[in-house]
Batch of 3 targets.
Target 1
Amino acid sequence: MDKKYKKQDFKTPEGYFDSFTDKMKQKLSGEEIHLPVKDGFRVPENYFENLNEKIVQKIDEKDTKVIKLRRYMKFYYAAASVAAILVLVFGLRSNQDEFTFEDLANSDLETFLENNDIGLSSYEIAEVISVEELEINDILENQINDENIMEYLDDTVDDVDELNIEFDEYEQ
């Protein structure tokens, strides 16, 4: 704590609370207690007996104007609510487009097939795809040049000559 907060400014004299009750009893016993005989408030006699009747007589009954609802208005409200519900239902349905296979991205399909076990082997999938319609460029995203193939074979295959490849520009 800081030094400035160590000093307490509130003090009581010594022994102040020790004999407080005794001192209070002595003080009260020595003096006469002056309580008033009457409290100072007066109510006229029979004031509360007829009070209700007097208040009711003084109140003027005012006829309030009653506004009657037209009976046909509730039908308008019901028809408007039904129309609003129909607009919402058909409006929400018409905004939904049909979801087609073409809408799926290739990456989504690849991710699904990689992450989910569909129970088909690569041979079973190959049986479904017709080879006549399939081209290598359909499978691959990037087209492969002959030079890229030769570079790949040069890096991965030990003896390229055994593959019997005819490539004029290939350098050993």
Target 2
Amino acid sequence: MSRSEKVGFKGNKSFLPSKTCLVCGKEMTWRKSWAKNWDEVKYCSDACRSKKSGSKT
């Protein structure tokens, strides 16, 4: 079985959870640095975090 034929090979980002940024609506994919607080992640960047009062609904 070649590397491309493996369904869940390491690095396949299609199997990672994702969320939508509350400000800009951009899709965010899980990152290792967010592993401990993934449930609290709401913004895709520091810029969106600073604009949180003008969030898109």
Target 3
Amino acid sequence: MSAPRWVDGNRFTLLENGEAYFPRVFEAIAAARHEVLLETFILFEDKVGLALHAALLSAARNGAKVDITIDGFGSPDLSPAFIGALTEAGVRVHVFDPGTRLFGWRTNLFRRMHRKIVVVDGERAFVGGINYSADHLADFGPEAKQDYAVELEGPLVAHIQRFVQQAIVEGRPGRSSSERRWFRRRAPPSALPPQAAAGAARRCSSRATTASTRRTSSATTAP
């Protein structure tokens, strides 16, 4: 693989902690007209996660194509209502390796997706270490995290955009990217969005029919 080529003509803005980062990135996402690409390790359903949720819905309602990739270990407890509202609005939710539990312990701890990237309309990008959780704000208390992100404008944004788009196409960050798998692990069909619930019901019916057919065939051929 060749070394990356230096790209001139970019503008960088350093954003310190959630106080500087969240208003900038949420404003950019909510105003998107064409495309939003987002990758993150942690997305919690707290005041920060809900603000991101609102911005993503705004972008989708503007007609933007919205893809988000979250890590299945870092973001394990989002509610069906939270995810369902996004998918019903047209947001594509990709989950990197949801993982399983073995005797109550999570597996695949070391195969994670830690990127924190946002690309808006191919014109602005945000890259850094800040997740979408309230512990990146000072009012969280003594355990609040210190971290940074960089806002980028210029030709480098196109490179970042292509990287995230290609990652989605190749399935590297989203081998388990269907929202159906996310919901199957967390909720019964009654809690699913209508389309996902119907699909789950069809699959259950198909499995029951197959099992019944096998039992009938076995009884017919038994000596």
